[in-house]
Known about the structure:
This protein is mainly alpha-helical. It has 21 helices and 5 strands. β4 (180-183), α10 (189-194) and β5 (197-200) form a beta-alpha-beta unit.
Amino acid sequence: MSASFSPTLHDVSPEVALAVVAEHQGPVLVDLDETLYLSNSTEDFIDSVAPRLPALLLLRLLELIRPWRWTGGEATRDIWRVRLICLLFPWTMQRWKVRVADLAARYRNTRLIDVLSASSARPVVATIGFVPIVTPLVAALGLPLAPIVAARLHTLADRRGGKLELTCTALGDGFVGESLVLTDSAQDLPLLEACALPLRVIWPLAQYRPALADVYLPGLYLTRVKRPGERYITRAIVQEDFALWVLASIGLATQPFSHILGLALLLLSFWTIYEVGYVDNDLIASRFEADPKLGAAFASAPVATPPWQPWIWAFATGAAGVLVLRWQTRVAPVDLLAWAGVLLATHGWFTLYNRFDKGTRVWLFAGLQFARSAAFVALVPISPIGAAALGAHVLAKWVPYYVYRLVGKAWPEAPFHLTRLLFFAVLAALLAFTSGVLSILTGSAAALLVWNLYRARQELATACAAARRLDHVVTEPQP
Length: 479
């Protein structure tokens, strides 16, 4: 875990801490990660894995399942991660031992280690890092004889109990009570309060580098930088865009399962390129806008954004989607060209959008929403009622943006799902007038109506509850 920057009563500067440690005559307990070692041993160990992309995919799957919810919470998260890496990539430990000397030289807290080496008291390294990971690291840092108190990898108890319990079990309450404790983490507050001389220091050169941060994976920028904590992929892409793709076209599909799988692959392909547009949007905003609206994660750059890998992913998954959709027939080159054209056009439109002023973006935004809603139509036929549903979705997305840019203060709190339901009803009625009532008396129309009603159920209930008739006079009850 990275150091917490929540202030404590024991916070001191590095210079004060070094002076106190140099003069201290009693036992010394010193933290490892981001203290002795100006990085994180667990993250750097995981970062030693190879091959890297499969490892990142496995860790992302683990983050979705979150099995530590049932084993003690966030404190046990790293146990699951390290165990998974050791089980499926057993050569990682050997790779770690090879890398550890270089990492120790690069992230060694030289000033602190020199003071500790000159001190009469032999320091004890106390960490919730894992024994097989930290033991070679401490030796490589130049403290081969320092006793180490660390968490065991085969049990959950050490991580559940925390550093205070772990240290007291290993060294005794009396030893802790007489010790100087030097750490960077506010999570060590119980240990700091139990010791004789507590020092909490944030070292300027310390850094927390998430494992495999340089490995590209579609969706990471969206979830960690652009829309952190919003579950945007699940809520906005899968439950909205993809659901519409399926409902608008499934009625004409002869093989529903392969149809849905093919659409899912096209969705991944499309959003890989659409995400590139978000990256470009933030970069342009940071360079040219006076007051760019950038998330806190943008400055720390926690994910890789390479220029060409997204296109490899997009073309590969797009080709796979075309293959699945056309598995009963021969894949025509025109299908691949059509999808490549969709990706290039979307990227070009997003690039154009990012480089124009906000007033002009009002009109370009509609094109982006059209691409999100209807990109798959380049390969998949849809019913007329499906087209109406997609049109309603585009309009419901565009109208709040138009109001936002017109007013220029905040995004309006408009009932999106209810607005979309209204547009769908209007467009469906127009379709019935022009093509006959039978055009909307279909299974697809019923499914789209039910789905829109379900998605708008809360907003519809709120609107109905707030409705008041003006021609009804409310009289006060008589006493």
